[in-house]
């Protein structure tokens, strides 16, 4: 394994929304006093720990009554309007770092409901149930929004009624398009399904790039937090392109048994994976390669 070539994908790592959120958090922490993040600021345990050392504390909605006069950080995933109203009621200062792409999608969800209400239609979102972004999206209006994760959930939709179909920003374009086509096939009327592609291209464009990247190496190591929805999607893209793909959360999880016979290793990650963490993984593999 000596002379192992290691390359970090220059397009992997934080997306614009996450970069912006972490920058806002670091700026607020530099001003002094604790900042309370409503949920993990990013779905990467190692990066959260780094920010905790700077004074960030992760809290839940249940903790909000004790935070009067404190600063509450709204992460890139966004929150429903009820959270902002509750913070105001409790006298909590809010730092809103909702990703602009997510904020636009929240507005589109509201408009979708406005369009569907008069015609008895349904608003459907492709997304992961319970994911912070999806909770924020479905919470934009009181009317119910149907969340589907795959074709097995299409039974939740009444295809005799109009459908407005959107997506969580980090979902797979291929899955969204396939489900949209199937909805149109099942719809009682040809124009009964409106498809509104709301997937973030900064994220989705990585799929083809990552597939090409993964094919260039003998082994691929994908770095992401275990909670990362985007990480699950992108690591599968790599795995389909290269069967010798391994997913880790940190450098300590690297297994030397992955590399026998390998001459090259590609390192890539999710939109919630910091560059410094991918570099740590590269350094660890480099140490193995020098043995």
TrEMBL record:
The keyword Oxidoreductase applies. It comes from the Bacteria. The active site is at residue 133. Its cofactor is [4Fe-4S] cluster. It is an enzyme of class 1 (oxidoreductase). Binds 1 [4Fe-4S] cluster per subunit. InterPro entries: LytB/IspH (IPR003451). Isopentenyl diphosphate binds at residues 43, 77, 131, 228-230, 272. Catalyzes the conversion of 1-hydroxy-2-methyl-2-(E)-butenyl 4-diphosphate (HMBPP) into a mixture of isopentenyl diphosphate (IPP) and dimethylallyl diphosphate (DMAPP). Acts in the terminal step of the DOXP/MEP pathway for isoprenoid precursor biosynthesis. HAMAP family: IspH. This is 4-hydroxy-3-methylbut-2-enyl diphosphate reductase. It comes from Alistipes onderdonkii.
